[in-house]
Amino acid sequence: MAKNRNRRREVAAPSPFEQARDELFQHIIRCGVLQAAPEHQAEWFDDTMAYLDDRYPELSEAQLSELKTLGTRFCQPPKSQLASSDAASAA
User: Fold this and answer.
1) Structural domain harbouring 62
2) How far apart are CA 68 and CA 64, in angstroms?
3) Residue 9: Cβ within 10 Å count
4) Within-domain flag for 42
5) Residues whose CB falls within 8 Å of the CB of residue 64, separated by 6 or more in sequence, listed in order
6) Phi, psi torsion values for 33, nearest 5 degrees
7) Is residue 61 assigned to a domain?
8) Model confidence over 6-25: pLDDT tens digits?
């Protein structure tokens, strides 16, 4: 039997957590939060998390907390390779 290669595959819809995560990352990029001062980032995250809580009521407090953690990590500058290799050679 020949397989039908043109048949569409069913793709699972993203979960509310995945939707909220993607929306958070898009907001971070669009709003310029990456260049903001730490105190402004904290204020922005408080407002944005309240918005996401309203928009995705099915998310638990733990999931919202995880989203905030992911977002704050996303905003941190990348670690340099030099600092990583210095720490490895010191150990």
Assistant:
1) 37-75
2) 6
3) 4
4) yes
5) 49, 52, 53
6) -65, -25
7) yes
8) 777 788 889 999 999 999 99
